[in-house]
Amino acid sequence: MNYKDLNIAHSYISQGDNNIVDAFLNPVLKYTKEYKRSVGFFSSGVFEAIADGIIGLAKNHGSMKLIASPQLSEEDAKAINLGYEHRNQLVEDLFSKDFVEQLEGLSDVRLKMLYELIKDGVLDIKIAIVSTTGIYHDKLGIMKDIDDNKIAFFGSPNSSYSGYRSNYEKIRISKGWEEGSREVVEEEEAEFDNLWENNNKFVEVLEYTETAKESIIKVIEKRRGAILSPIKLRDYQEQAIAAWKANNYHGFYVMATGTGKTWTAIYSAKELVKEHPCMIVICAPYKHLVKQWSEDVDSAFPESTIILVSSENPGWNKQISDAVIKAKYDSKQQIIIISTIMSFNMEKFVNSIKKYEGERLLIVDEAHRFTKRSEELKTLYKYMLGLSATPFSGSSAEKGKELMEFFGGQVFDLPIEDALERKYLVPYYYYPIYVNSNAEEENKFNYQSRVIASCFRGGKCIDPDKLVIALRNRLRIISMAEEKQTRIDEIIGDVSERDHFVVYCGDGKLFNESTGEEIRHINAVKQVLSRHEFKPSQFTARENIQERMDLVDSFNKGEISALAAIRCLDEGINIPSIKSALILSSNDDYREFVQRRGRILRLYEGKEYAKIYDVVVLPSEASTQWAAIELRRFLEYGRLSLNWDELEVDFKSLLMRYGITENEVDVYDYEETEVEEDE
């Protein structure tokens, strides 16, 4: 496709559906190989608005040339025009001051992207100053696609976030292939090129790209070096890698959530390719985990070709083919492919991988989700590594053993008990918050229990689909218990932490009596958080990958004080700054308990301990099945908490109340279900 295939209008405004960013810049940049932009003022915050388009430009091996002007005071302008001895340095310093301020407002992801664009020669920046006391204030854009079609656009917005998103701005478009427009486009491009080459007698243009790169590095270094610096492995990570190597580069790491499975796997791969160059294929269950893996892999393998395979990147097949062809002529080229499990299982993906003539390593994250395993994979991948904090889950002990044997057997184990004792995770307090069920809810629960029982005959399940639905329905009754909702203001109001707070919500809806309409549980929770002066946002499957990563970054920085989530925060996603979490909704799932706790207990600067608040719904004494479901979570979270001594008294009292034993509570007899892998 090229510009002619796009439905490009002759003007756009910054507001509404037909806005400058979403309707014009981002879609057009994805087909652009050359972007020339001159503006009166530049903010690096523009990359928050047009990041998707810039990524497309980079994938096209394109370039962006930017001319911008510093904001000069009258004194600055006079100093420059009076022939100040170091006038060029003064101009650069004035521009740098604003530039660095904008950089400090960027997320880690955007900051790294800006650095990579400059480092790779995609983005080149120059500064324009006029020879009078005025400022350079032109606003022009020239774009050229892969077939040399050109567009010129002019108008009011500067290259800033507010210029594209907040203000009311308008641009007008000239298309070089339309009658009467070619001359306009060529004239404007000639004007830009003269400026770029510093051939305009009214404007002086100075180099700035190297200074921009240095400024970005300084800002990155302020942020704990987390973006570009290599990781320092802990002793147990080194032990895991040594065990995997000793097992002929095969095996399974069982590591408590939050202890660094990802980095252990990445450095395992680095050790392998030192001795045995090979293609690296990494498989993860969710798209946001694919993105998160790519950022870590990129810092460990900075010169590699990284290809992301999911519905977010429809061109992955061609990218793999191109990389394979290139590898034939460049044996040092490291190919790393990161795929969702869903895409990994596609025949098209398997065929693409087979084109590579060398050896291959397969790394599977959250490997308990990797259910479609075949012997053919062992032929296709000479080296294998599986990762999970929870290969065993409830009644699936045998399945867990089979899973680990597929990868070559368990070679390393770091349970949460050891991780807490050795201070690889922060200790935590557990606070159960008791609410009561009502008679109607218990009746519904008992009905679903009878449906579940009807799915079995002679000890065997005869209707698995019906069973899954009934199990979910029964858990939803507990999840959406009325007293949870009526007391939500009180519950959130009693939380002592006012920042870095996560709330796990249900996936159901509530009836809003004031509006007479239903509202999603997560939206109702956000409203309550706002009333209690949190700055909340949601983290769900509805947000795209980049939005999720930006939310994580804003949360870590404290710009967002609370995240409301349903299931997306259960596995893999790294948010180490979480101080406390409120569990309003939960499945009867050991893996969920473990994964959520691991999210909360990650080490973070200044974080000495964490808190888990858990709303436990207590039924009447006759509803022992209901009680067992809620007390199972109580036991799992409570037993390793700092305050277990006092909690254990409550726990044993509740066991006596319901006439059940700890062994009955500690048995997970649910039927495991799959999640949507490419969520």
Automatic annotation (TrEMBL):
Q: Where is the Helicase ATP-binding domain?
A: 242-409
Tell me the InterPro entries matching this sequence: ATP-dep_DNA_Helicase, Helicase/UvrB_N, Helicase_ATP-bd, Helicase_C-like, P-loop_NTPase, PLD-like_dom
Q: Where is the Helicase C-terminal domain?
A: 487-655
Gene3D superfamilies in the cross-refs:
Endonuclease Chain A, P-loop containing nucleotide triphosphate hydrolases
Q: Which PROSITE patterns match?
A: HELICASE_ATP_BIND_1, HELICASE_CTER
Q: Does the keyword Cytoplasm apply?
A: no
Question: Which controlled-vocabulary keywords does the entry list?
Answer: ATP-binding, Helicase, Hydrolase, Nucleotide-binding
Entry keyword annotation includes Glycoprotein: no
One GO molecular-function annotation for this sequence? helicase activity
- Descriptive protein name: DEAD/DEAH box helicase family protein
